[in-house]
Model the fold of this input.
Amino acid sequence: MSLSRFPPRSIAGRLRCGAVGALALALWLLPQPAICDDGLGYTDTPLLPNSPWRVHDRQRPQPPTVTPGDNGFATPPADAIVLFDGKDLSQWQGGDPKGIEHAAINILKTGELSTKRHFSDCQLHVEWAAPEKPDNDAMNWGNSGVSFLGRYELQIIESHDHKIYADGIAGAVYGQTPPLVNASRKPGQWESYDVVFTAPRFDGQRLIKPAYFTVFWNGVLVQDHTASLGPTKHRLVATYDSRETTGPITLQYHHSAVRFRNIWVRALQPTAPLQH
Done:
């Protein structure tokens, strides 16, 4: 989920959506974030461009659910840069190595991680697992994300046994585009993303081509050359307020013990050297 933290729940936000009565109406009109207890979204966020839906719109339909096949775990090809093979965090900035457990990264214990190398266009394979049981509230169970250039986020969150707003479930380009389908496995089971990310292009300050995501989730296509509106934002419409075309791959810390393993990347453009 977005690096921006959720605002505190207001009194109005704690009221069930659809509440009636003068007091509920008065509270609802206060200038506070409108969010429902069920976590399914907002009613007061801006409209997305060329869309009938608001950012994190609680009325936006959830994607249909499909059961993925048994495959989806990939051995790195010969030209891949292995970012994590179960042993150490040598490819990452910071991070507590004590968070490596049973050949997997526990992001709650390592803290947020960003690659030392910077990438532009790339192919990424990453395997992840949400905790088997809720380890936080509905908005944070299994909450993490993979960000390209450190800014463009593909959402990670437990999406089999509970839901949040459609543009915030796993497989979503966060705050923008829900996945075509929900291909989640049961909580605690390993899942995989295979992503082709294309960085934006600029002519000076002018955007000439947006960033694009193509994503296979557990072997199922869920983003098909999806254009990004810009670097990820929470409760706001994304815009291209950054002109960066290279950057790190980031694994987000968001208060849940999400695990990662078998992470590798193929650079489709020359990479920058290691950042020290």
